[in-house]
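User: Can you recover a sequence for this backbone? Please restate the input before giving your answer.

Assistant: Of course. Working from this structure:
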């Protein structure tokens, strides 16, 4: 009897879902390109989380969070390898070029975050510009990048902590399990513990988490200062130009190096996800995002110069470059200091990234593209509790078994594709949605810009075809100039004092070009993995996301219709004649 009742209860859901699937083409046509206005995103959609997030962050909190998010393990992993094999002593130039690219992308993020100060970051920006599916595509890729990179960084924390305690084998704190595939057979319980502790901290309060990050970031910057001062005081300027000059591999080496070190800048976008927790977002966000990128660029350049001054580039070690460099100048004890400082930097980077990933998932849950319970904000802590716990557990599980090399490539291409889409969205929004121009000229410009960037990148990879570089570079400049003088940009918005990207469309156009160029430097395997992930998230959208959002919108329309309808129970008063 119980079985028959259970079957009877399940039937309505099953048949309703089959009915929904039969309407998939109609729902895709209605929802894929559906957009929200910024006012709807700021008010109507945000109410779906219940309680509001608490606005406690100031501009200096944002700068510290941006620094904490970027000043992680990347500079220690990439600098030595790029200096030895790709850029030589000119690796600091690679950091400058990568910093310019990151700055241009951050400018696009900043304008969006000022106009649409919600926690969804790129997901919200793309959803109000290009529609639901493009926003969902970006949000899914960002979540994948966050979870995988956080898991890999947590495992790196174990390695550097081993170094800080003098252990020579980075796997000495891991448990090897025979029978599991290579790359998944070393269990890292230290990484799991760190992720879970930070998850609990983030569930408690954003402000307290920000204070913790501020303290760690201050110590981390002091640690970087120690490395820079030691390198400049005890290094030799002659090491920068011997034996083959400052740029031994030429401009190609500098630019190829920029593509590699660029990923040390990933993390500034986390600041934009905190827009709902900032006291004055229109003032604080530009300072926090742009300021942190500029400061980090300066620190990275000084770090690279100090390394190349201590050791000639051809003698720099592949791994533990800074520890080995201090050994060369007779400071072997500094290797332990480097391990301790890197561990602290990884903790700060991990804290900021986990802070951002929960905000992304919370807003995606508001849109009903994932189960709505993930969008709930706890009324007492003012944090997205469910999203924080869910992603914390996912990150901990992956960090237990998965090595860094398994996930690195897909992280890179997913991040660059989102930065590319945000730059396109800023131009489209400024010239079409706000500027009220016809979409065809802007879409044609964006398509031609992308094709030009691809042509330039292919010419760059085919080393013999040097003629393509000035041709495609010239086309890029001419096309952008023609667009600037033929399509009228948007007029100042409701508040002319609002921050906006200067010299548009040049910064966004250059950002598009650089993101395409950097993507073409990745291996074919990364594109294959990216295609598989894109297929998986598209299937999820077709089977779940589009039906959930369609039904949520229909329900809200019905509720609004009921609220606006006259109440028949209220009878008009009768007059006595």
């Amino acid at each position: 009897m119980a079985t028959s009742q259970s079957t009877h209860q399940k039937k309505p859901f099953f048949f309703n879902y089959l009915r929904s699937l039969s309407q998939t083409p109609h729902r895709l046509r209605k929802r894929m390109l559906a957009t929200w206005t910024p006012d709807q995103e700021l008010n109507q959609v945000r109410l779906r989380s219940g309680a509001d997030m608490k606005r406690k962050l100031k501009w200096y909190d944002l700068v510290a969070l941006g620094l904490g998010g970027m000043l992680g393990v990347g500079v220690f992993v990439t600098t030595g390898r790029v200096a030895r094999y790709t850029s030589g002593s000119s690796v600091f130039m690679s950091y400058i070029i990568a910093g310019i690219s990151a700055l241009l992308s951050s400018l696009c993020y900043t304008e969006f975050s000022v106009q649409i100060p919600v926690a969804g970051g790129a997901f919200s920006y793309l959803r109000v510009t290009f529609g639901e599916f493009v926003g969902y595509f970006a949000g899914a890729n960002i979540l994948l990048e966050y979870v995988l990179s956080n898991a890999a960084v947590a495992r790196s924390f174990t390695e550097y902590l081993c170094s800080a305690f003098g252990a020579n084998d980075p796997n000495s704190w891991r448990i090897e399990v025979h029978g599991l595939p290579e790359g998944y057979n070393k269990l890292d319980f230290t990484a799991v513990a760190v992720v879970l502790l930070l998850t609990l901290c983030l569930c408690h309060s954003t402000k307290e988490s920000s204070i913790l990050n501020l303290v760690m970031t201050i110590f981390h910057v002091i640690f970087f200062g120690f490395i820079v001062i030691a390198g400049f005081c005890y290094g030799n300027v002659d090491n920068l130009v011997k034996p083959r000059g400052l740029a031994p591999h030429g401009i190609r080496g500098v630019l190829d190096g920029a593509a590699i070190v660029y990923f040390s800048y990933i993390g500034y976008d986390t600041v934009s996800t905190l827009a709902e927790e900032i006291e004055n977002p229109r003032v604080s966000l530009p300072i926090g995002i742009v300021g942190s990128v500029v400061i980090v660029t300066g620190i990275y350049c000084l770090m690279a110069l100090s390394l190349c001054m201590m050791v000639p580039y051809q003698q720099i070690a592949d791994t533990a470059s800074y520890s080995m460099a201090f050994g060369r100048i007779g400071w072997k004890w500094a290797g332990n200091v480097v391990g301790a400082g890197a561990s602290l930097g990884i903790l700060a980077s991990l804290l900021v990234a986990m802070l951002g990933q929960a905000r992304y998932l919370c807003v995606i849950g508001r849109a009903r593209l994932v189960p709505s319970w993930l969008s709930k904000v706890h009324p007492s802590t003012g944090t997205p509790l469910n999203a924080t716990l869910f992603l914390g557990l996912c990150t901990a599980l992956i960090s237990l078994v998965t090595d860094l090399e398994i996930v690195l490539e897909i992280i890179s291409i997913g991040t660059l594709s989102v930065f590319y889409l945000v730059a396109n969205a800023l131009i489209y929004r400024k010239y079409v949605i706000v500027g009220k121009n016809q979409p065809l000229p802007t879409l044609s410009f964006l398509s031609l810009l992308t094709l030009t960037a691809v042509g330039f990148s292919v010419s760059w990879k085919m080393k013999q075809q040097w003629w393509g570089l000035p041709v495609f570079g010239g086309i890029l400049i001419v096309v952008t100039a023609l667009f600037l003088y033929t399509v009228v940009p948007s007029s100042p918005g409701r508040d002319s004092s609002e921050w906006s990207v200067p010299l548009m469309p040049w910064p966004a156009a250059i950002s598009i070009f650089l993101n395409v160029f950097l993507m073409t430097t990745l291996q074919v395997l990364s594109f294959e993995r990216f295609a598989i992930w894109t297929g998986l998230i598209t299937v999820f959208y077709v089977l779940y996301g589009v039906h959930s959002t369609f039904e949520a919108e229909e329900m809200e329309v019905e509720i609004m219709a009921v609220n606006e309808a006259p109440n028949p129970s209220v009878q008009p008063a009768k007059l006595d004649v």
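That completes the design. Residues 1-10, 572-577 have pLDDT under 50 and may be disordered.
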